[in-house]
Amino acid sequence: MRTAVALGGGHGLHATLSALRRLTDDVTAVVTVADDGGSSGRLRRELGLLPPGDLRMALAALAADDESGRRWGALVQHRFGGTGALAGHAVGNLLLAGLMEVLGDPVAALDEVAALLGLRGRVLPMSRDPLDIEAEVTGLGSNGALIRGQVAVASTPGRVQRVWLRPDRPRACTEALDAVKAADVLLLGPGSWFTSVIPHLLVPELREALITSPARRIVVLNLAPEPGETAGFSPEQHLAVLSQHAPELRVDAVIADVAAVPVPERLHRTAAAMLVPGGRVHLAPVAAADPAVPRHDPAALADALGVVLAELDSTELDSTGLDSTGLVNAELDNAGLDSTGLENTGLDGTGPETHTGPDAHAGSAPHGPAPGGQETRRSNPWR
């Protein structure tokens, strides 16, 4: 059994972890620590601790599937009602906050709760220090605006152009770095794109580990744009801003829900700038049926991940540029690509389209390994 690391936060990371646990018992969640709203924000402001909410959700996603695990999982997710001082707090948030104070270390606190839940895997913060997100936003005035705080960025009526972290160049959690370096599979997304997914690429040590890892790197796209930070975003725009924040990052696959991609050719074209040779764009029905809000179905996402990893493992590029399916791994020229190698769509998804051939899952990749990247790739992750 091989190792998988999923990076993100909130409901998106919960979906990824719920899918991964169907494929392997060795799963590590690396979680953003910039939340400043709700129960997490209150505990962070009052106690100066890491915001526990996203960490709690990741723990619940990996709780043991037995009576004890289900009981503890339900308990940590329980939120107090009423109008008193505890109203709105989740039990797991209070438990984590108490353990962080008693033990003096968030990783030790997370491991204690993991033991209570019989965790299948591990949950780690991306940094031991609470962080803040700042964003450059247009559409709020003639000169744009700078917005600070996860809640403010996530709910802005303006258009987010880029984000960064405060303090600048934060330290990565050592255990999270070790997990990324040891992983066979790395997953980014789905989730709040600017406030849960991209922040992992803004921690210098973590970014370097992701870029140079020999693991399979997979991006899972959101099912729909989120009100606020990604309102009106196409699937292509999600990839575009990811690449803008980490131009050196190359990935092995992009997974998207087939119903969420109105023009597959555009997604293939944009993804080509990020894919390694032999990389894939995989469209599959991964959305839950008739949800109250868009969310991934864990079983369907697990199936898609299994298919993608099997395809990646079976694809051997030869010197003729043909992969094992006989599809041409075509090189794209610079026409329609900007100076970063990204499709020059102005982030509006209206750039030129390209025909991807008869295999709707195959992507073409104009780039080799990222600078400083590893030549040897880990194959057959689930063997």
UniProtKB/TrEMBL annotation:
Location relative to the cell: Cytoplasm
Listed Low complexity bias regions: 357-367
Family under the similarity heading: Belongs to the gluconeogenesis factor family.
Region (Disordered): 336-383
Keyword field: Cytoplasm
Function: Required for morphogenesis under gluconeogenic growth conditions.
Listed InterPro entries: CofD, CofD-like_dom_sf, Gluconeogen_factor
Superkingdom, natural source: Bacteria
Protein name (record): Putative gluconeogenesis factor
